[in-house]
Amino acid sequence: MNDTPERRETGSTKPFNGIAIAFAIAALLVVAYFAGRHYFAPAGHEAPAIASPGTARIGGPFSLIDDAGNPVTDEDFRGRYMLVYFGFTYCPDVCPTSLNRNMQALDLLGEAQAKKVQPILISVDPERDTPSHLKEYVGHFSPDMRGLTGTPEQVAAAAKAYAVYYAKVPGDDPANYLVDHTSITYLMGPDGKFVQHFRHDLPPDEMADQLRKLLG
Predict the structure, then answer these.
(1) Average pLDDT for 131-138
(2) From CA 67, how far away is CA 123, in angstroms rounded?
(3) What DSSP assignment string belongs to 157-186?
(4) Is the pLDDT at 9 greater than 90, yes or no?
(5) pLDDT 10s digits, 48-64
(6) Which of 46, 91, 203, 215 has the most CB atoms in a 10 Å sphere around its CB?
């Protein structure tokens, strides 16, 4: 009669606590795994902020065609920061919102710092985004913005280097389709190396504050 109900209950919870802790640790590992897999997500599913800029494996050589119809590579932009966004001219909302925000942020920097940065749109819709069409489109945001396109293979290689997801979303009309894509803006350094990314929903003033610190 020495084992009271209270003592029996206390003794029975010890192994349960150990199992609960084990399950909790396993759950955290699963969450961490899937968070890593979905670090760069399609438009509307943003990636988390980068804790230590310059550490991610983003960027690399690319060979494309600019909005004047001339061949261009990443080497042509050395010496300036590149503000790179992957999108397409027929994008109904996400692309124009991001590109307009990018230019607003650069305007807030002032002319001296803004000149250090080359804003770029790389098309993920090479079938429709011809150089001339790109030139007209980017001109709506800024005369300083460069539009880049290329063959489907060239675009795919550039997107892979930047860990960008994109996929055509067919519509009823084969010529009328959307392209689902990662909606992140990348800042590349004058040496072509990754510096930081900016989420689609980051306000222009906050983006300008971050750019101001990164550009010095």
Answers:
(1) 97
(2) 11
(3) HHHHHTT--EEEE--SSTTS-EEEE---EE
(4) no
(5) 334 344 455 899 999 99
(6) 91
Q: Residue 56: its pLDDT value, please? A: 57
* Residue 95 CB burial class (10 angstroms; 0-12, 13-18, ≥19): buried
Domain edges within the chain: 1-37, 63-215
pLDDT digits (tens, 9 = 90+) for 15-46: 434 444 444 444 444 334 333 333 344 444 44
Kind of pairing between the strands at 178-181 and 166-169:
antiparallel
Residue type for position 200: H
Give the long-range contacts of residues 178-181, CB within 8 A, separation 24 or more. 178/90, 178/91, 178/92, 179/88, 179/90, 179/91, 179/124, 179/125, 180/42, 180/43, 181/42, 181/43, 181/86, 181/87, 181/88, 181/124
Residues 6+ apart with CB under 8 A from 122: 62, 64, 84, 85, 86, 87, 148, 149, 155, 158, 159
Check the CA dihedral 126-132-136-141 and report its sign. Answer: positive
pTM summary value: 0.76
Query: Which CATH superfamily hosts domain 63-215?
Result: Glutaredoxin (3.40.30.10)
Please state, in angstroms and rounded to a whole number, the distance separating the CA atoms of residues 190 and 214.
12
